[in-house]
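Database export, one record per block. Field names are fixed; values are copied verbatim from the stored entry.
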Amino acid sequence: HPACSPLLQAARGYARPVTRKRKDIPSHLDDLPPTLLKKEYANLPIMNSVDDVVKRLLSLEMASQKEKMKVKTQQLVEKVRRSPNDNGSFEVQGKFKKGRILIRTLEEHLQRHPKDKRNRRCMLMDLDRRRKMLGYLRRVNYSTFENTCKQLDIQYSPPQPYTRRVTKRWLVKKAFCIKVFQEKQKLKAAERLKQRREWRARARAARAQQE
């Protein structure tokens, strides 16, 4: 049969799509030990007397990515905390540690899926938000800013100054806007002078009636 000819079968096999292997990208959550307990069960005293199977179920070995991110966030908080009871400083309350984890997670996701524009936009927004917060901390307390960047492994890059190309059309438009603004200020000044004269005339009439 012509449909089962060896030449046609070879052509079909040649036209099959090639299955590409996914790149094995290392995750920033791989440094967490699998025997570490989850955040909710880490400080419970009863965990010292439970079975090993229960410990495995409540450890990071069986945890999801969201639970691992919670543990990673707590570790980053301990790095930037000024004292054991520090819960109100800007670097602890700020979103540096959470933003760092989300940005690293999105970077790994975009390496696997480079065409995901929505997550790329979210990552750029998180980067911009973190840059603003680091800029504020840099202005307020530079030593804390340096320590935070060092402990969280963040490289701060200040925003580039805005520059505009000066063209003839832009200069003419700017001069026209300035002229319109000045004419509007003159009209407002004339209206204010008229109102003041009316107020003074009313005040004089009221004084004359009282006398």
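Remark 1: The CA atoms of residues 2 and 8 lie 8 Å apart.
Remark 2: The first helix runs from residue 6 to 14.
End of record.
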